[in-house]
Every structure is written in structure tokens, then in C-alpha cells.
Amino acid sequence: MNFNLLKGKIKEKAYTQKDISEQIGISLQSFNSKINGKRRFTLDEVVSICKILKIEDPNQIFFNQ
């Protein structure tokens, strides 16, 4: 997962991590754990984040090694 690219997309779209966590229905603490690589996003969370941030190719962010 490309954490820096995801963080950049969040800033680019003028969202905060709190905004995204609320919209996908998880706590900010859980979101922070996931965006910092301590836990994994679920498929539903990935889909929701892509819709919110209008990410057309989730592979470059979520499925990149």
C-alpha cells in the first residue's frame, strides 16, 4: 500500500483524516492505524475511500507493494 499517496490524495481533495474516517464509518484512531500501516483497510473501506476521493485506479494506492 502506498500510504504517502493516499495521504496526499486526502490533502489534495481538502479532506482531513477525521473527515474520511467519519464518512467510511470507523473511528479516527482506527483510520490512523490503517493509514500508518498497523492494520489493513477492508475492501468495503477501500471502495468507500475511492468514491469519496474520486480515485479511479485504486491499484496504485491500495494494491501496490
Automatic annotation (TrEMBL):
- Signal peptide location in the record? none
Listed GO MF terms: DNA binding
Q: Which protein is depicted?
A: HTH cro/C1-type domain-containing protein
Start and end of every HTH cro/C1-type domain? 6-61
Entries under InterPro entries matching the protein: Cro/C1-type_HTH, Lambda_DNA-bd_dom_sf
Alphabetized CDD domains for the sequence: HTH_XRE
Write the lineage as a comma-separated list: Bacteria, Bacillati, Bacillota, Clostridia, Peptostreptococcales
